[in-house]
Amino acid sequence: KQFDFFMEALKRSSPVPISFEAMPASTYGYFSQGRQRIAIREDMSEIQTVSAAIHEIAHAKLHNLQPEKAQDHGEAGKAPEKPKDRRTEEVEAESVSFAVCAYYGIATDENSFGYIAAWSKDKDLPELKASLETISKTSAELIDDIDLVRKWAARIGGRYMGRDRAEEYGARNGVPGELLVKLTPTNVVSAVDVAS
Question: What pLDDT is attached to residue 169?
Answer without folding.
Answer: 78
